[in-house]
Amino acid sequence: MKSVKVGLVGLGRLGQQHGDNLAFRIPRCELTAVCSVVEAEVKQARERWGVPYGYTSYEEMLANEELDAIFIASPSGFHCEQIKKGLEKGFHVFCEKPLGLHLAEVREVENAVNRHKDQVFMLGFMRRYDPSYQAAKEKINRGEIGEPVLIRCYGLDPASQIDGFLAFAKANDSGGLFLDMSIHDFDLARWYLGAEASEVWAIGGSYSRPEFAELGDAETGAAMVRFDNQAIGLFVAGRNCAHGYHIETEIIGTKGTIRIGSIPERNQAVVMNEHGVIHECVQGFIERFEQAYRAEAEEFIRCILEGRKPDVTVKDGVESTKLGYACKQSFTTKTLINVQE
Ligand code: NAI
Question: Judging by DSSP bridges, how do beta strands 197-205 and 257-260 pair with one another?
């Protein structure tokens, strides 16, 4: 295969970023088709990236035999169905997180991926491709902090995006705070600790906007998790972060600690004036993880070309969804939940 021809479905916030990468930045990748239910988005995307084929129906895109791979960046509620259909048509499939919103459907996807062993499937846990998170993993593997025993994660979206999110959540099933926001942290915790979650207690509330409670969701929440090797996970998620997009991770080991993103600074410029010493904060996921989105897409294309499988597997999607779902159950029922039951 000289190059990989990709069809991209979902042309929203993240679809635009993936489209830029697939069209312009990934070697031996051709963005050959785009698909969205919104016709204007399809037209705009075809013009912007010079894409030969555009569709408003996913099934019609799957009938295009020129394609080798499907890249899914549609809303989370469509992921499982679109993955299964893409695999059944013989395509390699990349899908944005989360794998799905319900346990039954993610298990079906796991079976579908296992039935199509010759095709590449990859899930968009892009933090694993971020240079800082990768460096932390290498240091843990080298034993620099001893045995990891506790992970503390903050995943906070900017308050400036709260209106946009509420409009999205009223029209779509986001999965709720833990499945939508903490899912990356759950994956990182499993990756760093080398363990699966066994029990979770999750709480949350709607502190600045009552609409979250009306949706049965939390604006800010916290989960405490016991892993099956007795390690501890503390996960804080929120959608009302005044200073911007705050993603912070700490791994405490028996011989040391690693912190990633303690101060979520935008760049190295510091203003010192009558207000104090000021670092501007990064304002969103694209700004913070731009490199990682590109690196994960590059890895997907390389896996197809080289006939190998990526490190992020469908099992990572299933296990993180199980934990996210258990958090949601714990938050809703106000009880301790056994994740593996
Ligand atoms: P968005 O709402 O901005 O865009 C969704 C796109 O999908 C739009 O183009 C919409 O027209 C299209 N669409 C909707 N239903 C469709 C269907 N049935 N068939 C084809 N196209 C359809 O959403 P956003 O923020 O780009 O999120 C997309 C996915 O990416 C979500 O699953 C979300 O969880 C995930 N995401 C992942 C992030 C990460 O850090 N990895 C960050 C943000 C989102």
Answer: unpaired
